[in-house]
# Entry
Amino acid sequence: MTPLFTQGLPAWRSLAVLLAALATLLLAGCNTMRGTPTRYQSTDAIVAAIQLTAQDIADLAVETDPVTRNRLQNKAVAVIDQQYSAFVRSLVADRADAATAVAGTTLGAATAAAFVDSVTAKTNYALFGATLIGAFGIVDKHYYFEKTAPALIAGMDAARTQALLQIKQNQQFGTDRYDGAAAARDLETYYTAGTLVGAIKDITARAETAVAEGQGQIRTLKVLTESEMDRNGAIVAAIHAIQTPQAVQKGNQALKALGLKEQLDAHNTRRALLQELRASDGGARTDALEAQLKAQGLLK
# Structure
């Protein structure tokens, strides 16, 4: 049976048409598939125009004039920013290029299958295409793009912001407090913040801080006794029972006595009382809440 792609055309001409379509797909991936328009100016052109030289950094390290120090440091910051932006774009573009290459290779496999008559060859081409798509999907979705790359970019952005803030704050000082050597060191810190190593360091530091804070909060939590849990359960049940206008009025009286804002309806009255219970430490504030609910006849 003649394949659909070759009906009415010589085989070589049909193949040429399909190869042209494949080339169009791959070329489209250069811009459209990356999700970015053509850049207003190339990074290389901008960096070249800034004209930061190794001598500028050497001069910065020994600079004694604050104005010149800041000018040289800002030139270096501008270059670092341009190169960082190009690096981040490349992380996304590399993924898009890989996806385009997979699509093109898969199309090539399907095209080749259309131009052979052997059932075995067709099957092999189909299996190759399916395997290629599946392998790329696993790596892309689960191990790199959906998880790693966004987290690393966020980590780099956070670290760079903190490093730049430090630079801008230090630029307000004279060279007696912020000399050229310190300014040069801060540039290196700013650059490193925009690398994968800097991102991992920032993410690790934030994770360690979160763990330490969480452990500290856990250590300070009070473990309620059985009798205290029973009492809290009774208070919660009494608060949930506030449904009628009369009960709402009594609940607001309890809130007022506790120094809290009165509410307009049953839902908000219950929520305000429950928030007070959660904020209490099982001590005096819980005692006060329980006393007011009892005083209003809401809790026996």
User: Anything to note?
Assistant: The longest helix spans residues 66-114.
